[in-house]
Amino acid sequence: DIQMTQSPSTLSAFLGDRVTITCRASRSVSSSLAWYQLKPGRPPKLLIYKASNLYPGVPARFSGSGSGTEFTLTISSLQPDDFATYYCQQFNTYSLTFGGGTKVEIK
Amino acid sequence: EMQLVASGGGLVQPGESLRLSCAASGLTFSDFWMTWVRQTPGKGLEWVADIDRDGNAKYLDSVKGRFTISRDNGKSSMYLQMTSLTAEDTAIYYCARGGFTSSWWWVYWGQGTLVTVSS
């Protein structure tokens, strides 16, 4: 299976900060990567698909980049609604696998 | 409006079985692949199983032989039969709608149903 490793596991930031989360794959997944936001009591919310495509309705402050084995999710200006846990997920190869998550906390 | 409602979770003892259901509405269910994803305290999100429109399935290695995914297009429902449950299966189980030809990322999710395996 392809292992997905996210860093950092926890991130503390101020409102308005630019935040970057990294996701590394144990082998190339091309651009077959999605990003989700997870909040307590709610199902995951799709933010980005195919590495860099913003899902309709997701605020433009979210962006994704990368290909192969290294990917990033960037929040350009952190807003109160953005405090959550973020997961990357590869869909290049079965078993589909997620990263371990990055919790974004208020500083 | 499309809706997925997961149900069937509960508290069971190790070694026991449980059947989860996912009822879909607001879509032509037979057109779509469907997926189960779980959220565990230790591992975060984990893909569990997929089923295509014809009923062909794929599974996470750790559940192969213990879990069976199925669907009833006439009832617009998907199921996950879980047997030989262990504490590592404790999780919130979400159903999710895939696409017409694959289930690679998921926009539409059910609300989740909690499975607790404990003696």
In words, what does this structure look like?
The complex is a heterodimer of chains A (107) and B (119). Chain A has strands spanning 4-7, 10-13, 19-25, 33-38, 45-49, 53-54, 62-67, 70-75, 85-90, 97-98, 102-106. Chain A is an all-beta fold and 107 residues long. In chain A, the strands form 2 sheets. In chain A, strands 2, 4, 5, 6, 9, 10 and 11 form a 7-stranded mixed beta sheet that branches. A 4-stranded antiparallel beta sheet of chain A has the order 1-3-8-7, with no helix packed on it. Chain A is globular. The mean pLDDT of chain A is 97. Chain B is mainly β and 119 residues long. Chain B contains no helices and 11 strands. Chain B has strands at 3-7, 10-12, 18-25, 34-40, 44-51, 57-59, 67-72, 77-82, 91-97, 108-109, 113-117. In chain B, the strands form 2 sheets. In chain B, strands 2, 4, 5, 6, 9, 10 and 11 form a 7-stranded mixed beta sheet that branches. In chain B, strands 1-3-8-7 form a 4-stranded antiparallel beta sheet, with no helix packed on it. Chain A binds chain B through residues 1, 32, 34, 36, 38, 43-44, 46, 49, 55, 85, 87, 89, 91, 94-101, and chain B through 37, 39, 43-47, 50, 58, 60-61, 94, 96, 102, 104-107, 109-112.
